[in-house]
Amino acid sequence: MSEEFPIEALEESRLDTEQIRRAIILFALLAIFGLTAGIYAKLIGHRSAFNLSREIPWGIMVATFGFFTVTATGVGLLAAAGHLVRRTGLAPLGNRAIYLTVILLLAAFFAITLQVQHPWRLLVYNMTSPNLTSNIWWMSTLYGIMVGSMSLEFVSMVSVAGGGQGSVLKMSILGALAGLAANNNLAAMVTAATDPPVWQPGQLQLVLLVSALLSGSAALVAATVVAAAIRGSSLDRDSTAALSRLTRTFLCLVVLVLVLNGWRLYGLATADSDELRQGAQLFISGPLATNFWIFETALGLVAPLGLLLASRLTRTRLIGLAAALALVGAFFQRYDILIAGQIIPAFRGWDGVPPHLEYAPSSAELLVVLGSLGLLGTGFLLGERFFGRVFQGLPPLKPPR
After folding, report:
1. Is residue 304 within 8 Å of residue 286, measured between CB atoms?
2. d(CA 59, CA 339)
3. d(Cα 234, Cα 240) in Å, to the nearest integer?
4. pLDDT attached to residue 104
5. Are 188 and 30 in contact (CB under 8 A)?
6. DSSP 3-state assignment of 160?
7. How far out from the chain centre does Cα 400 lie?
8. Which helix (H) or strand (E) holds 281?
9. Are 60 and 100 within 8 A, CB to CB?
10. Rounded to an integer, what distance in angstroms lies between the CA atom of residue 47 and that of residue 3?
11. What is the mean pLDDT of residues 184-191?
């Protein structure tokens, strides 16, 4: 029988520093500001607080939800691969990956809960009157299964020292499969709701799947590098080898997404449909061009590729910076995908109808986005402090007798 340990035995007391406490307070304040902005919007009405309309009902908060959930799917798939296939060499990073998946999903739910006018209705009617033909029902259910299974997996790891490996593996596989299904469902929901269909269903599913792996690997690389930095120590041999393997995967995915982006843009620009060609112009020279060329492509893909090559996959700081930039690019990619399908007018070609609609996030929307990031940062730092020994694969400290 496995020996049980109190939660204090898992804490890394050396992270209980003034700097860490201040960082936690700062992130927690961001989360509170975001929550306050969301509550304010519910009191005065979303139409008054958010720059949303009947034509553009999904804004930056839904893009934030998509960014966090797709990234969580990628991290969850990597965690499952590390536990299931030992040859991947990712097992030393698996514990942190599971926890990271959970807090990414919580940050996503934070954003979407404050986006929806009556979120409690989803909780009630999701269980009492499920609609199996609804993409939104499937999305909420699958992501709920994912966060539940990943949470149980993490609890299994920290509650019993050296035990529960069978249940951990089962929960990891269940969470990864639920996340993969939810990721495909998210693509189907976007393509079904956009008019005109800027994104073709099969194309968008492939884009989101590869992007999930890219942002997931970038998030896990960044979390590992930051965790080592705040400890002021280098990684152990096993973690260093795992990070090296993960970085090579990250590099391959950056190249793949660069090729995929060129393919999808070429496909839109040379399509037979005027609607699709108009969609391509949004990215080439239209209102999304700055996002696409500077943030999504230059900062999010080209710069990480250059940094990874310059680092020779050994210089940790350059690798961490490449991962951070890739995450910035991934966020703008989710935003561009979502907005592109909404800003082309449904009645284009009529007199007085502009070639594209305008959307800019309101201050309340931006505060909610910052609140999601604050929740993520708070959860990450608290996890590193209170579960640090689990993340490093160290045994719990034996309680004093």
Report:
1. no
2. 7
3. 9
4. 95
5. no
6. strand
7. 40
8. helix 274-284
9. no
10. 55
11. 72
